[in-house]
Write a structure and sequence with these properties.
366 residues; mainly alpha; globular; two-stranded antiparallel ribbon
């Protein structure tokens, strides 16, 4: 099994090494939101605070909508500070290349965790092939040359699923449940939209369900409590987040803007464009993912709960962004659906496993 897990990581990295060596498209890897994760790490290290005024370069128009306003009107991070905190040692040691190094590490971790998860429901060989295909034949390679918060949150969610004990008889069951709950909550704190993956925990929580849900909740309580305290200190209320106080320029003044106002795209338009937009739609940028989900019924034969969880939660995330007018803000593919791409490797492994067995039967039949 370990051999196949390593192959699932190493083979995609042959392509990734080429991407890094050639510099992808010639544009710096700190693009889009990436510079704000980077300067957050610098501010935490150099100034021991989250006031980004010393780190931001240029006129505010350059940063319009990319930072937030604290309750004392300082410019602070709009994005989660968890990834910058973890990447800080590499950034301190290497500067900007440290952010790229951290990104490569989290891609490797994601491939590793996804293969471990897929191997619970398919043969090691089929799972490894599914993860390799996911790593090279979707839009994932376009985010290797990056410092991606979407990769980070996807890694947290897959880690939470791997941490869940597969059965009531699993070793260290309580510890694994607590860790899983902690990681599920940390996933949501790092990327709010991934709250849609929480309700389905009721389906995949092992028996005895009520007791284990309480342990999961205890683990999740810690990140949510810290997040509430952070929001209260930074924005004046436990329920006010950085996305409720995005800094925008209005009539010559910097004022707070809530991202809730951006969920005004007609639902049918978002439903269509997220699938068929030429540069960002799944059909054109990650058709393998659509093929992958054809394996959900086969995955359901092994484990109905995980098949329903992956299918329903992925659909909920897709539907959640149907009304978000800025869903397309990615240089390639829809990065907001990053976690769906990796979870798709699980049913894809079942599909490949089933296909391989059918071929073997036909070859052996007289």
């Amino acid at each position: 099994m370990l051999r196949y897990v390593l192959l699932a990581v190493v083979i995609p990295f042959i392509l990734y090494a080429y991407i890094v060596a050639t510099g992808y498209d010639g544009i710096h890897y700190l693009r889009g939101d990436c510079p704000y994760y980077y300067v957050t790490a610098l501010s935490l290290y150099a100034d021991h605070d989250l006031d980004l005024s010393n780190e931001l370069r240029g006129d505010f128009l350059v940063h319009n909508g990319s930072v937030s306003i604290s309750k004392d009107r300082k410019l602070v991070p709009k994005h989660s500070i968890i990834m910058p905190m973890l990447a800080m040692p590499l950034i301190i040691a290497l500067g900007p290349p440290g952010a790229l190094a951290f990104n490569l590490i989290q891609v490797a971790v994601l491939l590793f965790l996804t293969s471990v998860l897929a191997m619970r429901f398919a043969s090691p060989r089929a799972a490894a092939v599914a993860v390799i295909l996911t790593g090279v034949a979707t839009f994932i390679p376009h985010y290797v040359w990056n410092f991606s918060g979407d990769l980070f949150s996807a890694a947290l969610l897959v880690a939470a699923l791997v941490a869940l004990p597969p059965s009531a008889e699993s070793n260290h069951r309580n510890e694994r449940l607590f860790l899983s709950g902690f990681l599920f909550a940390l996933t949501v704190v790092s990327k709010f939209a991934l709250f849609v993956f929480l309700p389905g925990i009721l389906l995949i929580c092992p028996a005895p369900r009520l007791r284990n849900l309480l342990i999961l909740s205890a683990g999740g309580f810690i990140p949510f409590l810290c997040f509430a305290i952070f929001n209260n200190e930074m924005f004046g209320s436990p329920f006010t987040t950085s996305y409720h106080r995005i800094a925008v320029l209005h009539q010559g003044r910097i004022v707070p803007y809530s991202q809730e106002n951006d969920f005004n795209l007609p639902f049918r338009e978002g439903l269509y464009l997220q699938m068929f937009h030429r540069d960002n739609g799944l059909f054109f940028t990650s058709p393998l993912t659509l093929l992958s989900f054809l394996g959900l019924p086969l995955l359901g034969r092994r484990n109905k709960s995980i098949a329903f969880y992956i299918g329903l939660s992925s659909l909920l995330l897709y539907l959640f962004f149907c009304t978000y007018r800025l869903w397309y803000e990615s240089h390639y593919g829809n990065r907001f659906l990053m976690v769906i791409i990796f979870l798709g490797a699980v049913p894809l492994a079942s599909l490949l496993d089933h296909t391989a067995r059918n071929w073997k039967r036909r070859a052996e039949s007289p």
